[in-house]
Design a protein that fits this description.
The protein has 308 residues and is mainly alpha-helical. It has 15 helices and no strands. Helix 3 packs antiparallel against helix 11 and helix 6 packs parallel to helix 11. It is globular, with a radius of gyration of 22 Å.
């Protein structure tokens, strides 16, 4: 082979050529991966969408794999409909349902790693944009989390809505209450930010531009969380604001870490309140104080239930 031709063939392609390589499933050449750009990822919209779908399938599938054996053993004579009714009121079944989210999240993280790194061929954190930008630092992320939490709490209080299924989960047992608080703080922010703002947004903004990518990802995040809670308009409004704030943070900063910290603080503050609710209620706040405390805890519980 002519050496000049070989050198020309091996030369790295410009970053703009990513789009020509991967609208979906084909990876960009390894030579162009030395300096990952979070806004120009080596995966396309189809790959990101399939990863998101896989995360949903894992969440639902693992729950069924955990609950079905329990139902068959404990309610084998009740029939399918009867077993379903019993499970909704069984504290152990409810706890198992919540705990099944842990392996589902771990499997989702493994799936994200496989796609982002190309099975170990690319750096994971740098490719996702895991770092701070010059314009957004830790204090800004945490401050915005508190601000959005307060706005969401006011909206939830003003608009209101009926009790949801997760209200029943929180009230079912102390173990379920702690499990939800831990999941909402430890795994949910990490998994959700990697899927929505890490993979989906980065692939969409390259194809549609920033504005439509923000709209699409914010809507999808809201839709997935609201699907089971359509009877509570206050929570829907709060989730919409939270989703839009997170996606705008990703668009403005160009990094994923600010979104994760904002999500972590938002969920973490609510988790602290939810875990401490029963203990504060036992301290004898008086009739008026008790009513105010219960109303406040009810507001934050409604917010948290849709964010795990």
């Amino acid at each position: 082979m002519d050496p000049s031709k070989e050198s020309s063939f091996a030369a790295p392609l410009p970053a703009d050529s990513y789009a020509a390589y991967d609208p979906g499933l084909i990876e960009a050449p390894a030579s162009s991966l030395a300096a990952p750009d979070p806004d120009n990822p080596p995966w396309g919209v189809l790959t990101a969408a399939l990863t998101w779908l896989g995360s949903v399938v894992l969440l639902v599938g693992v729950q069924f794999l955990v609950i079905i054996p329990y139902a068959l053993y404990n309610y084998r004579g009740a029939g399918l409909e009867g077993a379903g009714q019993f499970l909704l009121k069984d504290p152990k079944a409810i706890l198992l349902s919540v705990l099944s989210t842990i392996p589902a999240h771990l499997l989702t993280l493994a799936l994200v790693w496989a796609v982002v790194t190309g099975l170990g061929k690319r750096p994971f954190w740098r490719t996702l944009g895991w770092g701070w930008s010059a314009s957004i630092g830790p204090w800004t992320s945490m401050g915005l989390a508190v601000l959005v939490l307060l706005v969401g709490g006011v909206l939830t209080k003003l608009v209101g809505g009926e009790a949801t299924e997760v209200d029943q989960i929180v009230a079912s047992s102390s173990a379920a209450r702690f499990a939800i608080a831990i999941l909402a703080t430890v795994t949910a922010p990490l998994v959700e930010e990697m899927i929505y703002r890490g993979m989906l947004y980065s692939a969409l903004q390259r194809v549609t531009g920033m504005v439509w990518a923000v709209v699409a990802v914010s809507f999808l995040f809201t839709f997935v969380h609201v699907f089971q809670y359509s009877n509570n308009l206050g929570v829907i409004a709060a989730i919409t604001i939270f989703s839009l704030s997170l996606t705008l943070m990703r668009a403005y900063s160009g990094r994923l870490l600010p979104c994760y910290v904002m999500h972590l603080v938002f969920n973490g503050l609510q988790s602290i309140i939810i875990v401490s609710e029963p203990y504060m209620q036992r301290r004898g706040l008086g009739a008026v104080g008790q009513q105010k405390a219960e109303a406040f805890f009810h507001v934050v519980t409604r917010l948290l239930e849709n964010l795990i």
